[in-house]
């Protein structure tokens, strides 16, 4: 499913930076900025698509069972609505999204004179899809040369692993990539990123105990000089309450802007899907600080809190570019609202 580049010797970089394996520089003339493609790592065959949906359905099984079992032999009355309210709140859909869905559902039941539990279930499914559709958006490549992506998140969200997976997906779309190891004080993060670089023949710019903003600046400069398509800047994990570290993120973003006009072009937040309502708090805090352009929600496999996407859609509708349901590269796929809702209700 995925293609690999052959290794060639690493190119020299500026002092105080280091590189791992280097991917070939692209022929810029053959891929102009105006040629925009969608970075959708969609499965290539029917069997792979079925496999992805099966993994998504399995991952959301706990969330799904809390919702769908309510409709088995149910009567359409206040007790059903009360149970639905509890189930939605327990799935971390949040108060606003829950009240919105229930109000719309009651109106739909009344207007369409629905009398069967399955009809109400279908109505709820349609309302949830309507709520989630605005979150569905493809990450576009080729708008800038290079496209600079800054990636943030709290510790443990799976940020560095996600960067490695995304970099591999970029290569599938014939994009050359440079990674910036912006978590300069955590050796494990640098090493993990370098492993991804070596495995996939991707340049990694790194410094030991250096300024993460300087690493990001060097990575963009390197990409511009080599004609690389995409720069992905890793950042150290932090909590929104760590104000000095949030200020550091703002500085990194400012410095990236000095290295290239309008950069970073994408500011992404990686969220652990198991954190529920805490995820919504993270979205609000990081968006206020960085003006997020997109979200990546990881670790949805086995969670009972899949309703958090509804909470995000209702209170802070930032596009969800990708969702993850496992450790493998193919377990990170573009968010599709219809697939997500089908996995919850079918």
What does this structure look like?
The protein is an alpha/beta fold and 346 residues long. The protein has one domain (11-30, 46-346): 3-Layer(aba) Sandwich (Rossmann fold), CATH 3.40.50. 46% of the residues lie in helices and 12% in strands. It has helices at residues 46-59, 61-68, 78-90, 95-111, 117-132, 159-172, 187-200, 212-226, 243-259, 277-290, 308-315, 337-345; strands at 37-38, 140-141, 147-153, 177-180, 203-205, 230-234, 266-272, 294-298, 320-324, 332-334. The strands form two sheets. It has an eight-stranded mixed β-sheet with strand order 5-4-6-3-7-8-9-10, sandwiched between helices. Strand 9 and strand 10 form a beta hairpin. Helix 1 (46-59) crosses helix 12 (337-345), helix 3 packs antiparallel against helix 4 (95-111) and helix 4 (95-111) crosses helix 11 (308-315). It starts with 36 loop residues before the first strand and ends with a helix.
Q: Main traits of this protein?
A:
single chain, alpha/beta, elongated, disordered N terminus
Task: Outline the fold blueprint.
Layout: E1 37-38, H1 46-59, H2 61-68, H3 78-90, H4 95-111, H5 117-132, E2 140-141, E3 147-153, H6 159-172, E4 177-180, H7 187-200, E5 203-205, H8 212-226, E6 230-234, H9 243-259, E7 266-272, H10 277-290, E8 294-298, H11 308-315, E9 320-324, E10 332-334, H12 337-345
Parallel strand pairs: 3-6, 3-7, 4-5, 4-6, 7-8, 8-9
Antiparallel strand pairs: 1-2, 9-10
Helix pairs in contact: 1-12, 3-4, 4-5, 4-11, 5-12, 6-7, 8-9, 10-11
